[in-house]
Amino acid sequence: MIKILKYSIYDLGRSHWTFIYFGFYLLIAGTLLFLGGDVLKAIISLMNIILILIPLISTIFGIMYFYNSRDFIELLVAQPVKRSSIFLGQYLGLSLALSVSFLLGMGIPFLFYGLKDSGQFMNFLSLILTGSFLTFIFTAVAFLIGLFNENKIKGFGLAILFWLFMAVIYDGLFLLSLLMLEAYPIEKLALGMTVFNPIDLSRIFIMLKLDISALMGYTGAIFQDFFGTATGLTITILALGLWVFIPVYGLKLKGNAKDF
Amino acid sequence: MIQINNLHKSFGKLDVLRGLELTIDSGKTVAILGPNGSGKTTMIKSILGLVIPQKGEILVNGNSVKNNWTYREEISYLPQIARFPENLKVKELIKMVQDLRKTLSDPEPLISLFGLEKFLDKSLRTLSGGTRQKVNVVLAFMFDSPIIIMDEPTVGLDPIAMIKLKKLIKEEQAKGKTILITTHIMSVVEELVEEIIYILEGKIYFRKSLAELNGTVKKIGLEGVIAEILEEV
Ligand SMILES: Nc1ncnc2c1ncn2[C@@H]1O[C@H](COP(=O)(O)OP(=O)(O)O)[C@@H](O)[C@H]1O
Ligand SMILES: [Mg+2]
């Protein structure tokens, strides 16, 4: 697997897109910090951006990279290489390249601005952690969609639809169901539904970490009420971990069963 | 040695292989013949683990291919349709495939045999079909594997390259390799092969040694012989 990982990192290292992605974070984090002048405010603004953008970019890169590597994959499956190493190696290659671009693009401006003395280090770290989780989750789902769909257009459409659902539609359905089920013990329902959306989970994780009740939102407040901050953080991280594990495991299973 | 027992493979509703049985002894060269769409490529891909059969067993040198990948180290494979990462240069591709295998390889003599030196720095996207097929041949023959599997290797090759390929195959035969080849070119079969295996409707329809057919082949040609057998059965 290390060899496959090496090839895909090498390949992505030559791609302009990785650098554009890095440059984007550099620019946006730098602007917010140096023009805004407040680390906490910058973290909150960045949170709102990355919760939408990381899933979108990971989905698009994931599905495009998967389809672009089809020839490479077909060459590899005939070689003495383990099937699951091929898919996992490619997946790790892309997820790592995106996460590292994100980490560096955010880290460099924050370090220069004086993250160390701002007292916001852990909050910054929670932003990086959830951003990386979202990268690994949405890349994995995009790969899985690609693996199940030979047809590029259909695969691309489904992947975007998945993003749209998680980023936009889900919240609407969520509110709607809360309104319709007024009498029901809606707190538990709200908690349950959150677990099925990695973007919500990430938002709640950062909110619990920042611990600003005004920004907490409905589900964040319930989470804090129900579990307290520490348990709430643990639960959201575990749920995010499952969100990585399940599609990656699906990748392995489907990869082993596929005909080439 | 390659052993196939009761192999079944369908794609959706299409039953391609229906209980195929086949044994190929070490050191033998056999041709797999059969009409288009009869399942030759599917059988070969099953041996390589590219296609996962629904039922049956395949053993390569005694090892089951199921959930196994190490046995591919013993096989050189020349696919019918070569798919390469298109932005790689030819020499990068060769290096990559070398890197993926543990076995020693020696591409230089093959590169000069097919005159590929001037293409080494070209990206695969720019190559003509015939040149791609030559690259394909280099990738398969640069390893010294005991088993060689070729799926319509002559497609796209010019007559000179074809003669060179036949010569290569003869050299490998002399080293005692097990060789499996599908082709529609009868001269390839007549010159190189000891046995023909004819696949029809997902099963082995007949299997004959060329020596056994020799007399008739001289009279009416190999195509004639095959047509005759197909009518008989
Ligand atoms: N991956 C696949 N999905 C669906 N059908 C396939 C696939 N591969 C092969 N087939 C079908 O299986 C049949 C046998 O194909 P193949 O083994 O390539 O035949 P041959 O090599 O003998 O010409 C054909 O009808 C082909 O369309
Ligand atoms: Mg074929």
Describe this structure in words.
The complex is a heterodimer of chains A (260) and B (233). Chain A is mostly helical. Chain A has one domain (2-257). Helix content of chain A is 87%, strand content 0%. Chain A has helices at residues 2-13, 16-36, 39-68, 70-77, 83-113, 121-148, 152-180, 186-195, 198-210, 213-257. The longest helix of chain A has 45 residues, at 213-257. Chain A is globular. Chain B is of the alpha/beta class. Chain B has one domain: Rossmann fold. Chain B is built from seven helices and ten strands. In chain B, the strands form two sheets. In chain B, strands 6-7-8-3-9-10 form a six-stranded mixed β-sheet, with helices on both faces. In chain B, β9 and β10 (203-209) form a beta hairpin. Chain A binds chain B through residues 3, 7, 69-72, 74-83, 256-260, and chain B through 11, 45, 48-52, 67, 69-73, 77, 79, 83-86, 96-97, 99-102. The site of magnesium ion has 4 residues of chain B, from α1.
Indicate the topology.
The complex is a heterodimer of chains A (260) and B (233).
Chain A: H1 2-13, H2 16-36, H3 39-68, H4 70-77, H5 83-113, H6 121-148, H7 152-180, H8 186-195, H9 198-210, H10 213-257
Helix pairs in contact in A: 1-5, 2-3, 2-5, 3-5, 3-6, 3-7, 3-9, 5-6, 5-10, 6-7, 6-9, 6-10, 8-10, 9-10
Chain B: E1 2-11, E2 14-24, E3 29-33, H1 40-48, E4 55-60, E5 63-64, E6 75-78, H2 90-100, H3 108-113, H4 129-141, E7 147-151, H5 159-174, E8 178-182, H6 186-192, E9 195-200, E10 203-209, H7 210-232
Parallel strand pairs in B: 3-8, 3-9, 6-7, 7-8
Antiparallel strand pairs in B: 1-2, 1-4, 4-5, 9-10
Bound molecules: adenosine-5'-diphosphate and magnesium ion (MG).
